[in-house]
Amino acid sequence: MRQRKIKVRKYSDSNRPHLKFVVGYREAGNRKRTFFETKEAASSFAAFKNAERQRNGIEHSEFPTPLRVMAQNALDLLKPFGKTIMDAAQHYAAHLKACERSCTATQLVSELLAAKKADGVSKRHLRDIRIRLGKFAEAFNGRMVATITSKEINDWLRSLPFAPLTRNHYRQLVVQAFKFAVGANYVTDNPTSEKKIAKAKVVSKTAGILTVSEAARLLEAATPEALPYFAIGLFAGLRAAELERLDWSEIDFESNLIQVKAEKAKTAQRRFVTMQPNLRDWLLPVSQHKGNVTPANGFRQLFEQTREAAGITDWPDNALRHSFASYHLAHFKNAASTALECGHHDSRITFKHYRELVRPKEAAHYWSIKPAPPEAKVMQMSNAERKEHLRTVPIVHAEPLSDFLKRQRR
């Protein structure tokens, strides 16, 4: 762009008769004029301004000194990252816009709950969101989610007084919440991406299971109301939540299959679990056409009473399901089948947690746990009925009939 030379012009104003010359120029984008009494002073000033423009360019000469210093410092900060002042300005402008349309942590949790409820997720999952993300919202009360940083989220997760596995459950829900926030344009940059939020290290532990003796005692101690829960847990491996939602109408004694409906399964996928012969024997005497398999009221107390009556003081986590998977794998020796019964996506989970936990001999005893046969009924017969009965009894021994009759009377 060609620069116009700054010139000295004559000036005349009756109110200021002593000023004879004027120099017009631009500074910081604004037009300015400086007045002089002599031509020599005006020419000297014009020459200085022209030299400044020649040295620094038009933009520099019109840019205020404080802004020039600020721009240079900003450029120095951005240079190691290969970014310009414009990159920084655009990024910060987007951040400010996001803050304007952002929401508080409390509002985010509320909207996420409403969205998940509309999507048809289980009540159990909604409860997890409400409780765990409720703690998150409380910790960041009043904060716009666009201003919450990865470091702050990491610090909060590490401050939770929980075991690593539980802490990772909180992390999973926070990540879910911020993915929702990105979709709603509440944040421009997700602070919970995989590399930004650390997972707690979980040390894998051997799955806790019940011994064959403990399983048998548990079933013997169970009342008719509690028996189906324990029997299905031990011999069909349903999860606790699936057991609590199971209806008698979903147990088919003709096909020997238990249906776990998609809306009741943790994986939201329907599956059928084979009813082994011993499970059928336990369920038939207490079976119903329909209704909840697990009592809706007071079952927790009933559960503890049964466990105490069976003499089981140490109850492992998910003991019923883990016992089923371990004994099933050891007895049937088919990881794919065990994974299918448990509702696992593949057999890797089965091998990882349940392989070689029990010996095949123990597994054989486990699957032979059956209810005791009903006691034989003692029938009172008249003499005539006894004689008729004896007449039809085949003689398979060589003892005298009189001795046989005496023994029958006894």
Offer a concise description of the structure:
The protein is mainly alpha-helical. The chain has helices at 39-62, 65-78, 85-101, 105-118, 123-139, 150-159, 164-183, 212-221, 227-236, 240-245, 277-283, 299-309, 319-332, 335-342, 347-354, 360-366, 383-392, 401-409, and strands spanning 8-10, 21-27, 30-36, 251-252, 257-260, 271-274.
Please tell me about this protein's structure.
With 410 residues, the protein is mainly alpha-helical. The protein folds into 4 domains: 8-63, no CATH class; 105-183, DNA polymerase, domain 1 (Orthogonal Bundle), CATH 1.10.150.130; 212-366, Intergrase catalytic core (hpI Integrase, Chain A); 378-410, no CATH class. It has 18 helices and 6 strands. It has helices at 39-62, 65-78, 85-101, 105-118, 123-139, 150-159, 164-183, 212-221, 227-236, 240-245, 277-283, 299-309, 319-332, 335-342, 347-354, 360-366, 383-392, 401-409; strands at 8-10, 21-27, 30-36, 251-252, 257-260, 271-274. A 3-stranded antiparallel β-sheet has the order 1-2-3, with helices on one face. Strands 4-5-6 form a 3-stranded antiparallel β-sheet. Strand 4 (251-252) and strand 5 form a beta hairpin. Helix 4 (105-118) packs antiparallel against helix 5, helix 9 (227-236) runs antiparallel to helix 11 (277-283) and helix 13 (319-332) crosses helix 16 (360-366). It is rod-shaped, with a radius of gyration of 42 Å.
